[in-house]
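User: Hi! I have a protein structure encoded as tokens and I'd like to know what sequence might fold into it. I'm fairly new to this, so please keep things simple.
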């Protein structure tokens, strides 16, 4: 391909999951998918996709976030196009143009881990109420205020709400008698459930995994049992959503979720509500579904 003079773009940040994946990049790096606001790259050997985004993606662990907003559908790239990392740069070639994304000199925020959440109190209740109100205004099929109520069993999205309702009891039962089959069935009912690139069932599961980690269930084995059940069922969802779930299993989280968890642990209402608002702005309902899984899991796994 004959390319014009390469365009050198400024990278705002390279998320920790993206940095780990791109460190493995060799022959075979290729475009996975292209959307107006995101360009996904498949890195052979890496468990998740790397997403090139505008500045709004700076909070995402798997993202290479640019300083300026871009419409990636205008870059002349298509799924399957080979790309490369060379001399510390991500070089993207398509339709006669080459764009160079300098990785080495860009900020590399460290991995942010979730704090341990030992208690729930007024901040948690305030955030749950705020989330339920946002979900009601948005007309979401999954509303945390309806889980466990009669409303969960009827109307649009009832299959999703009923599947969500199975996970808490299955996890609680595992803590009493570790049996993988019931937990596996509950997870399998959620993986891939719902429309979109990251279905609501997957977003909820990611939030539930975060809650299990924050509640300390890596010590008793429940977290690893959940990971095994999710991994065994990833064939039931798309690759973009599977990538998101693998990031969660790898202990990579959006910064807003870490801020929310910190606000809950230290009973800082303003911090927690601000972080929740940032989460709710992610995708059409993905951030709200992630928060729902997190709040639900904190309550279900707190005993």
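Assistant: Happy to help. Inverse folding works backwards from shape to sequence: for each of the 303 positions I chose a residue that suits the local structure. Here it is:
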């Amino acid at each position: 391909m004959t390319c014009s003079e390469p365009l050198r773009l400024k990278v705002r940040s390279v998320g920790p999951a993206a940095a780990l994946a791109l460190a493995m990049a060799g022959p075979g790096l290729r475009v996975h998918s292209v959307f107006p606001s995101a360009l996904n790259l498949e890195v052979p050997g890496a468990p998740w996709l790397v997403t090139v985004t505008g500045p709004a993606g700076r909070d995402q662990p798997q993202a290479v976030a640019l300083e300026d907003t871009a419409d990636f559908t205008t870059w002349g790239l298509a799924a399957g196009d080979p790309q490369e990392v060379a001399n510390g740069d991500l070089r993207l070639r398509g339709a006669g143009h080459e764009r160079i994304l300098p990785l080495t000199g860009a900020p590399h925020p460290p991995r942010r881990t979730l704090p341990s959440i030992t208690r729930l109190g007024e901040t948690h209740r305030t955030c749950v109420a705020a989330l339920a109100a946002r979900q009601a205004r948005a007309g979401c099929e999954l509303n945390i205020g309806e889980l466990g109520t009669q409303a969960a069993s009827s109307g649009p999205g009832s299959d999703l709400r009923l599947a969500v309702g199975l996970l808490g009891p299955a996890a609680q039962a595992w803590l009493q008698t570790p049996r993988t089959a019931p937990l596996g069935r509950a997870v399998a009912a959620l993986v891939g459930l719902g429309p979109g690139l990251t279905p609501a069932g997957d977003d909820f599961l990611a939030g539930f995994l975060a809650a299990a980690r924050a509640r300390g269930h890596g010590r008793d084995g429940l977290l690893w049992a959940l990971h095994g059940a999710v991994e065994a069922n990833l064939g039931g969802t798309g690759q973009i959503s599977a990538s998101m779930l693998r990031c969660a299993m790898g202990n990579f989280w959006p910064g807003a979720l870490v801020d929310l968890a910190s606000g809950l642990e230290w009973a800082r209402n303003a911090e927690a509500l601000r972080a929740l608002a940032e989460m709710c702005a992610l995708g059409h309902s993905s951030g709200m579904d992630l928060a729902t899984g997190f709040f639900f899991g904190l309550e279900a796994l707190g005993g």
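A useful reference point when you look it over: The longest strand covers residues 30-35. Feel free to ask if any position seems puzzling.
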